Amino acid sequence: MTEAEAGGPRAFFSAMRSSFDRILAAGRGDPRLVDALTAHAFDCFDRNSEIQSEGQPEPACARGCDSCCRLHVSATAPEIFLAARFLRLTAPAFARHGVDLGAKLAEAHALAAGKSQQERFASLQKCPFVIGGVCAIYPVRTLACRGHVSYDREACRAVAAGADSEATLSGAHRMIRSLIQSALRASLRDAGLDWGACEFLAGLDRAMRDEGCEARWLKGESVFADLCEDKAVAQDMAATFDALRA
């Protein structure tokens, strides 16, 4: 039995929150904290979404399918810092093949800044990490990317081409992603760490330009406060997290 089967969404959220709490209590200030948090989040997502989607068609998402890779993506600080580490690690190898990932990121962030979700999708601007139809940061992709799973590849292509239709998406993957990300944010808030979610490219661009960003976040500085996307509802979210704790 997975966490998601042990008592419904609320019980799963509480179980995830407790597990994140333990990781934060044991690793506060440890530079490996980001790795521990994201590894746990991604592992729980994989295990639970697989079970919760039993009986559904096989996902149509596969290598070379990048129709959704121009959607707006929200991410937490740990997800952003993990991606920044991966970029710094792999950038030299890509550079040898003439690909400057840092420059691609900066350009994409500049082009996307200020655009609404609809404007961004209509602009046909793809994620800067999609190279030849393949995600260059696939091992460290965000929870939002992991949770966007389609059962109809052709429908995704039609939507991306501007057709007035909808792709059939997996509700199970989306629900598990939302619960895990919310639990992570609740635990980060309880630990006194920046718990907001910001647009992935904006946050990643900052983390890449400022190598001390992660260290300051670990000390409790709100390094992405001005990029937070849900300031208007943050107070309500905090009240909900407190009520669920009670």
List the helices and strands and how they pair.
Blueprint: H1 8-27, H2 33-52, E1 74-75, H3 77-95, H4 101-112, H5 117-122, E2 130-131, E3 134-135, H6 143-146, H7 153-160, H8 171-190, E4 198-199, H9 200-209, H10 213-218, H11 231-245
Antiparallel strand pairs: 1-4, 2-3
> Could you name the ranges where pLDDT drops below 50 across 5 or more consecutive residues?
none
The proportion of residues forming helix, as a percent range, comes to 55-70%
Could you say which structural class the secondary elements and strand pairing correspond to? mainly alpha
Instruction: Please list the strands of the largest sheet in the order they lie side by side.
Output: 1-4
In round numbers, the mean pLDDT is 87
Percent of residues in β-strands = under 5%
DSSP helix count? 11
Cα gyration radius (Å): 18 Å
Would you count the extended β strands for me? Answer: 4
Between the first and last Cα atoms, what is the distance in angstroms? 26 Å
